[in-house]
Sequence to fold (212 residues):
Amino acid sequence: MKRIITNGITNLEPLAGSSKWYWGADYASGDLYEAEELFRSGHPIRKNRLILVRCPEGTVYEPVCTKPGQYLGRPAYHNGQVVLLLVDFPKEEIRILSFDEAEEITKPLAVLPLSIVSDCYNLMLEASPLMLTRSAHDNQFQILWPERRDFAIEDHVFFEFLEGNRLYTSVWYEDPDYREELLVRDYDTGELLERIPGSLRQMPNGQKWLLV
Fold:
């Protein structure tokens, strides 16, 4: 049995798109949106910790030591590197960072004003390709970086991937039985091009399986 010292973070998840990385966080003040609500209401944020664990060695990395008022969201994996999402509420900044495993340092990819979003609800990184996205309360899916796009979507829709000029999302229904569809939209116009019955699963090696 291998003993992995995580200093209290005991729940790890595989990092999508990678077969070697797992990640975990302590969610000291809830998720990113809940941390923002605490900050906006004048309450202190208990900064969170995020760790990366490399498999099979079990090596633990803590790529960012947050400061008061900073909070980390879900990471992504892109072009062989872990990419981190950090919101600095006092400075009103969104930072996107890449983790250099060899040097054990993070490097900035982008610094964005927090004002580009009305709140941090479902603010997250996606990696097909690398994008900062947000699924709003009002049936809007937004791509915020590296370019801006806004799409009107249905209830229960979540992003899957972007391939060329085709944006893929999944939607689930209970009518009355549970079922899923893969929706294909034109990336430039948002026009719905195709509905494909089935449930999409993206595998650790990058393959995409449609379960029908």
About this structure: The mean pLDDT is 92. The CA atoms of residues 22 and 208 lie 20 Å apart.
